[in-house]
Amino acid sequence: MAINSFIKGALEIGKAMGVTLKTLREKPVTTEYPRDPVPLYPRFRGKHELRRYENGLERCIGCMLCEAACPTGAIYVEAAENDPANPTSPGERYAKVYEVNLLRCVFCGDCEEACPTEAIVLGHDFAMANYNRRDFILTKDVLLNPQEAHVVIRPE
Amino acid sequence: MSDQVTLTIDGRQVTVPAGTLVVDAAAALRIEIPVFCSHPKLDPVACCRMCLVEIEGPRGPMLQTACSVPVREGMVVRTDTEQVKATQEANLAFILLNHPLDCPICDKGGECPLQDQTMRFGPGISQLVEPKRRKQKHYLISDTIVLDQERCVVCWRCIRYLEEWEDKPQLGLFERGGETIIDIQDGKPVDAKTGGNIIDICPVGALTNRVARFAFRPWEIERTPSICNHCSIGCNVRLDSRTHKLRRIIGRENMAVNDQWICDKGRFAHAWVNHEERLTTPLLRKNGQLVPATWGEAVQYVADRLRAVKQQHGADAVGGIGSAKLSNEANYLLQRFMRQVVGTNNIDHRDGGAVAALPGGIPALADVMKPQYGPNPKVDTIFLFGVDPSEELPILDLHLKRAVRRGGAKLIIAHPRQVELTRYNGPYLRYRPGSEATLLNGLTKYALAATEGDKPKVEQMVGDVTDAHLADLCGVDPDAVQAAATLLATSKSALIVYGPMAARGETGQAVLNGLTNLAMVTGHYERLAYVGLEANSHGARDLGVLPTHLPGYAAVEDAEARSRFAAKWGGDLPTRPGLSYKAMLDAAGSAIKALYIMGANPASERPVWAENLEKLDLLVVQELFLTETAAKAHVVLPALSWAEVDGTFTNLERRVQRAPRAVRDPHSKAAPDWMILDHLASRLGSRWGYADEHAVTRDISESVPLYAGLTWEALGDQGLQYDAAPVRPRPAYRKVVQAPLPAADSASFALVTGTVLYDGGDLFRLTRQMANMAFGATAVLHPADAEKLGVEAGDPVVVSNAHGELTLQVKLDVQVPPGAVWIPESLPGAPVGALLNGSDAAAVSVRPVVERQAALAAD
User: Would the CB atoms of B219 and A61 count as touching at under 8 Å?
Assistant: First the structure.
């Protein structure tokens, strides 16, 4: 009885050690964040960014469709008329105020879908912790100047 | 022939009045036929071809325009066949050919008939690959209306509105075919006073509101049904707000008041509501400076000082000035405060006690309206005495134009200026200011001659007026007087309207008596109406903001009425009539030691009043802005405007209407008028205990018999009229004596004042887009006079008399009679009151500013 259970135990250990030995030669799955970058899929939806055209004009025309599409009411837009001599965006209209409340946002991406000019995109920045509630409201300054400018326009 | 017609639409039978258009008959069955050019208030043109439906005819079903074909007995209409669908799709595709994809930046997006119909009836996909036509975008057709010719679908609604309603064809179609554009005529901007209505009826985003441009999106605004607070018509409007800010005002239909139209001042001049100049905290004068204070401090200060003044000088040394711009609730409580808590009848408002008004106003505005398919107006003759609806009551102007052009009404106008409405039929009597009595006696005399039967005893009273008097004293053609009097005497139902300009001062009572005589001789007394000009001119009078009358026109001497109100309010009410607005301000600093001014700015009216206000022991001003008067106050109490608190207003036809709270600045400490007065009363030992503004409305409906039953709930969205019969005085013939005209020599000018729409008041001037439309500090002269004086338009002139002098810019206009100068009230920095001393008739001299003469001499 004792011998039987001893052999059974040794077999079990051997099996477990086999798994260990087998994975010993594989690369580790764990990423040493923040030392190492986290791999992200192209469609990852992180912190919002407002984009510009190559000539520097803002893409956002202040149409407020993102605001209408937002299921949580996280976006607030206030539109105004462009100064023709010194336009902010092409056309007559631009967003004077554009705010995203990160505490409300559920990162669904509906704003991206609604945007007729691909101005608002969800970027790849996911480190959004903050010390202050006010800092969770992204203003135009922040949105137009993402810290890491690596936005890829999604193919769809 | 029966006046009801039965027809079949999509297999369903419907019976409608004869003359109904197919599109409206279908609407009765809730079948939607898409339209662009058709509008229920405009004549059909059938130019957009969107409403084509199949109508059964002798040659089988034919496509016809539903918006222009009237119904026929037994007509068979189909709106759902393949052919109709194909036509609708083709038409929409055709309209969209050159319509730009502007929807994201277009203010109409979200409430756009073109969007809606494209979604409902459109082809779904576009076959267009070619570039669209480019036309003018962002093209200002006036200071307040932006035209985008690319978006226009050429439905002509704007052109037709200006032709059919305004009778000012200022927009037209230019070019042909696909190049067709809407444009202004000869480069002249659209200056019709109600031109903004074309924005509301534009079925696309071609015409947009410049003041509200990009400030709103239809899907995110809160819509509050309210009324306009600029004039006494009380047009129904909708206040669109977002994030505690008023974003836009558009018209709302009320077929008893404004149809669906509103004027440009009501539509665009609302920037003041959320303006940064608004007062947000109480101000208290400390060491000569107005400094912010808490409400507790300010109210306690007012209470203490009022009590002290009352103890030292008696209650009659305190005066209260209400405002015809404020709600019934605010005015009712102010007079209650003055009468019950302070104990004085010194309570009045501008154009209050000193105006010979007739309570009740116009019997019904609907009597002068001519809706598109409605009956003709009930009144067949309208006599305007000293009223210029184009400047004072623009929607009445619109109704009158329509009544004359479509309803066959006749218009008689007596006015010192050749006002705009004189371009229609009917005699025009241009009288000299001050000569009203003679003119009215002359009219009565000729009216007597035109009537048959017994001549009432008034005949001897007016018998001594001769044609020579009319021609020399009034400057009126006696033939025109005879024509006007005959017209009035022979008319079945005439409306006689007079306004504050004629009813003010010493001549006012003579005008009222003269008009009463005339109205009784011609049999139109029940339609003789005084119209106040401010939003609540009638409500302020009704609710006793008068030195001589308690709410509901009970005289202050009437012991029964006094005891009725005393039982309701508590305490004893003063018995002696108080001082009028003018008397209080003239006596400020002498007999009057303390003034409580709510929503009035007398310091801007007359320099002498501005000086008097500084002599007061206590000046409390309850205001929206730091006005000239508020700047002189010891305490300034910040109040809330009509858009920020529930209130009711009474318009010129006694219609009590609701103006609910639409916005309120969460950062402002300003308080509603009723709450300020309620707190003040309780600090002075009188607990009123109103829980909210509706409690005040209820109190009014219970204490004032005239307003019985007019509670907030009962009023609804369209308001209710009260019965005027109890307050209309029984008419009696009275002799009218012509007062001597102001001394004048050949070189002097008669001064004509009056109200203009685009004046210099805070409620207008803070809308910066309208700055160019403002009347400005100008004196208007006839070109011939200007030539005589050697001045040109734009030159500065000094207008002066014994009372004071003003320096103004010259404007030339032929509507001002030769020998007169027109200086409207409330111009920025130009108080015409400086030239008046109580009466409205004054002679002035006009001379060019010396530098100009010197410059000319040097040339």
Answer: no
